[in-house]
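User: Hey, my collaborator sent me this sequence without any context and asked if I could get a structure. I don't really work with proteins. Can you help?
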Amino acid sequence: MLSRISRSLNDFFRQYVNSWVIFAIDTAVSVVSSIVILAMLNYFSSSFSSDLGFAILWVAASFVGSFIMFTVLRCHHIVIRHSTLKDVFKIGLAILGKAAIMGIAVVISRKWYSNTLLLALFLDFVLSFCVLIIVRSTMVMAYDALQHNLKEGRNRMRIFVYGTGDKSVAMVTRLANSTHYN
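Assistant: No problem. I've predicted the 3D structure and written it out in structure-token form, which is a compact way to encode the shape of the chain:
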């Protein structure tokens, strides 16, 4: 009975907690990107100077926008496996939605700073998108390296699969579970 409960808890944590950690990482990366853009604009642009109220609004809108869009599009469920163009598109759409929510929040609050705000939203989109793709790629490479290190003790033949279709992905999955190939 105790081992069954332990196994159920282990399955729960492996299946759900990992995706929520990825969700938290995605949200944090998105918010930090927004903070970096705001700091860069304050430092480099003479026509853009924000007060503390605007900075709080900017960061809060970034957090709320990221939280809503990542939750709605469920971007955190698609990480530790192959990534497709559809997955990258979902991340881009989530970041675009975040930028739209940030723009709406700034316009509603009447803290509009000319065309520099449009530039800030565009730069926020570009930086957030690029950093999220880099973080996701790093997660996949780290996971693959960890899986490789766990299997390294066994004698296996290394192979290289070249292809972009579903059949090549299926072959890699079958071979990864094989006892003869690595």
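In plain terms: The helical segments are 2-44, 52-73, 85-108, 116-151, 166-176. You can pass these tokens on to your collaborator as they are.
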